[in-house]
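DEPOSITED CHAIN:
***
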Amino acid sequence: MKVTQREIRSIEAHGVLGEFSYVVEYPTRVDPDRMRLIYAPNGRGKTNFLRAVSAALTPTPDSLQSLIEIPFARLTIAFANGGLISIDRDEDVVGQFTASASVGTNEEAFSISVDPTELSGRMYRRIWDTRADFSSYSDAVAQLSPGAIFIGDDRLAPLPSDEVRDSVRNENNSYAASRRRQGSVSRLLETVERMLTQEALAGLSSESEQTGIYAQITRTTLEGSNPILASEARAALEEQIESLLERGTPLERYGLLSMRQVHDISDQITGARANDKNLRAVHTVLRPYLDSLQDQITALSPAQKLIDTYVTSVNHFLDRKELRFTASRGIRLVGRDGNNLHPESLSSGERHLLLLLSQAVLATGERPLVIVDEPELSLGIEWQRDLLPEMLRCSAPGQVQFLVASHSLQVMNAVSLEDIVRPSEPQ
């Protein structure tokens, strides 16, 4: 498998809370190595460890401020290409530190020294943005990683800008058109909807760059009649149409493509005589159209696979309701009575689930690492057991890596015992 610059190989932290160490390794980017699960009793600093990793991958003045307050002595993040981010403290486990980053093996390391006094006052962000050493350091970190998606245990806390909603159900319009309360899950679903739509449009754009279908029809028609026999033309058409219907129907389910014309063509060919001489001309004229449709299906297949994985993963958990997606209407949540449901009307567990799976699929396009603290919150036992495998499935196209901390035995059952990370402490 090709090594990418953003692929993490290991994460190590020492002196967390002044005494605990965490060592996390990602030997490959294939399942199940993309998922690493931390188990530790309360008071072992696992949340501090997760926060430190997230802040270290986000080179901003605010993240430096966070790192000052997180108690640890040393943190290193090693990348598959030889790149390295390290944060070190000489004495205390909070306060000042030195951070460095190199983008590859034998590459120059760019360092900054961070003192709490330099991050106080209202102007500190502007001052840091003008520092040459911080600019070099942040550029190096940005080359290694665009940052992680951090999903904390407060993930469903109300947003400051949330609007009061006076109704949880709208029977005529999709929730996207009639939303009255923009909660965190609603906004996240909007983002997923945009991503899935853009994936489909990208596939269509790629296919449209190919030779135009009408130009192909013109060329094949001018080249003259096809020398094949009528029976051969019929067999070739039937074989290609069968393949198109098999591959195209899953795309039709999400409104990415219409196969109606192909069904009509199939019916007409089926109704024609076996040796109808006009089948040769039909084959000549239709072949460019069918070939073009084949290319279109190929171009749209990655988008269809991503959409199908997300939709089926969500619906694997939901009961008496389902999530639907079409290119024309976007994402909708539908009750068993057929009426649209507002995302914020769902149970706490359902909203937690939607948030986690949505972030997993979004990570395929923007972030190579997802950090989750206590994924089991509000989830029933069966959902806890199935969650991590479904998050891996949703994120497979982007080979996203996960760093998860959990207290749940059900969540841990999804991971091999030898792959569970536990903190160590000095003997």
